[in-house]
Every structure is written in C-alpha cells, then in structure tokens.
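Check the record.
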Amino acid sequence: MRPLHLTQLFAALLLPPLLLAAQSANEPLTWEEGVRQATAVNPDLRAARDSLQAAEMNVNGAGSGFFPQISGNVARTDGTSSSTTSNVPTTSSALVVNQNLFAGFGDQASVAQARANRAAAEANLRAARAKVSYDLKTAFATLRYATNDRSLSADIVRRREQNLRLVELRFESGRENKGSLLLSQATLSQARLGLLQADQALPVAQAQLARVLGRDDPQVLSLVGTVPTSAPPAQVDFVRAVLDTPDQQRALAQVEAAKAGVDIASSGFWPSVDLTGTANRTNSDTVPDYRSNSVILSLTVPIFSGGKTYYGARSAGAQESAAEALREGLLRQLRTQLEQSYAVYVLAVTQLTVAEEFRKAAQVRAEIARNKYSNGLMSFEDWDIIENDLIGRERTLLLSQRDRITAEAAWEQALGTGVIP
C-alpha cells in the first residue's frame, strides 16, 4: 500500500467539511465542481476505498507465516518450600522463538488468496467509480432536464394563454365556434397541469443529485452548463472490452482466490516442520539463578483428522469449479450488455439530431400557422394540430438531450470507465 502524501491527507480530512459548509451558499454548480465533490464525498466511493485498504492490510498480514513468531512471559510465584513454612517468592521468565519451516504450502496459498482478494477489491473500486460517474451524469442530466422542462412548461402556458385570447377574439366576432373556445380553455388547463408537474419534478431531481454529491440539503442546487459529451466509437472490440471490465476482473480474482483456497485446504495433508528456540530463567531467594536454553526441530505428520481435511479440500475444489463456471457465464452476459449499451448509445446520438431537426421545422410551421389562423386562412383544427406538434417536438428534444447523456453514461459504466478519477 502506498502511503498518503500530506496534501492528500489534508484534502481527505478537510475537503468534505468545506464542501458541506459551502452548501448554504446556493452558488450555481458547474459540472467540474460536481465531479470534484462526488469524488471527495460520495459514500459509495469512500466505502470502496476503505475496502481496498483493508484488502491491502490482509495481504501484509497473510505473509506473517514466513516470519518467526516471538513470545515472552514473566511470572512471579509466592509459595512455601518443603523444609520451611516461610514464603519463597520465585521469579521465572521465558523467551520463545518459533519459525515454521514448512506448512504444506499453506503460507504461499494464503498470500496468493489475499492478493486475489486485493485484486477483487481493486475491481470493486473501479466499478464503484464507474457507477458514481453514471449516477452523477444521470442526476446532472435529469436536473438539467427538470430545469429546462420547467421553463418550457411556463412558455407553453404563456403560448396557450395567447392562443386562447386569439380564439376568444375570433369567437366574439363570430368567426369561431364554441367548441374551439372550450378546447383552447382545456389545453390551457392541461398546460398549467404540466407546469405543476414540472414544479414537483424539480425538487426530486435536486434530491437525486444531492445524494450523489453526498449533500444533505438538495434545495440549494442549481446548475451552470451541462455534461460534456463525446461521439461514440465507430468500431468496438467487444472481446477485449469484456476482458477489461471490472466485473470480469473481479470474477477472475475470485477464481484465483478459490484456487488458493484449494491449496490452503490441501495443506492439511502435508507434514509441518517447525524450529523452536526457548530461553528460560528462574530466580528465587533459596535457589540460585537458573538458566536453560533449548532448540527443538519438530516434524508433525497428520494421520487422521476425522475427515475434516479431506472434505475441506473437496469443498474448496467445488468452490473453485463454481467460480470458473460463474466467470464463464459472466463473460457472455457482459458481451450482451456491452452490445446493448453501445446500440442504445449510438441510437440516442442519432435520435438527438433528428429531434433537433423536427423541433426546428415545427417552430417554423407554428409561426406560419399562427399568422394564417389570425388572418382567417387556416381552420382551428389544422392550427391546433400544428401547435400540439410543436409542443410535442419541444418536449421530445428535451428528453432526447437527457437520454443522449444517460446513454453515454451507461456505456461508460458497462466499460468500467467514467469521469471519477
């Protein structure tokens, strides 16, 4: 494990409180600032980092079997001798050094298993970074959509009010029927309902982004700018992409850990060789200072453990086979997920372009239709169809903008990449 630099330590200790204190400022949040805050404060990331640190410590601890084990003890005894009734305090001390010379390859397997678990923790951290990146992009895009949808809903209300006044003037002059007037009133009520829905959706989107940022007060969040995007790759090597995903790397690490588990369980069939050195010292008022030293080389041969070692090895072998099978199935599943994510990503990019073209055309048609209806050159029914088409195209464009960002974020998450360093 690499030690933290002082600047990193101060950042880890001081940055979260500073970010939390800045919540009340209600300053607009940029995308870059959102990435910094999520990286520093997001609890899922912190948990994954702590798990990796724990795995690092386990690797260091797994190598303890290669080092000597040293223990010492000191005892004082107050008692009586056989020739006198007086107390004879006795002090004894011992120093024991034990070095295992061979443990059936169990020590090597323990280190290998700890390293495999560390690799799994590293893959988990990669997956956590990719997920937080996806959550951040999705939450940022959702809040941007909710904000724009609220503005669009207010514009639609104003447009419906203007349309109603135009229809009322024509109705009062006898050039429009009552059904058209009632329909215009209904569409205005519908527009106001849409504005109410947008008002309710905005705090929900703020809460979603606040959760990703690790904030407690979502009401202070407002955005500046948008999520940066990039074009999808023209070609993808899905075989290589699958092997680079954190899910596959975690599954591979689990297979390696299971293999090491077989070696650990099988170590019970092997003899154990230990070298033990002991230094004793005893001192009392009636007995001179007594010292003794010994060195023992011992060989322990397992004969029968009640089937524990045998069945433990069989169980470890079955776990290894299961891990291999799970990884094999996971590879096919990841290939499918990558193919689907890429297809959705490409379609979302194209859909946004199409939606922009349709919105532009709908705006021009709506202006032409309004002028024609004002001059009595178009029926209310035809004008209403064009107005509804414009509103639908504008909402579709907002959805396409949001979906384009979330589709790219889902593709990055499937690859195990993202914006979180």
Observations:
- Residues 1-25 have pLDDT under 50 and may be disordered.
- Strands lie at 29-30, 69-77, 90-102, 223-224, 272-284, 290-300.
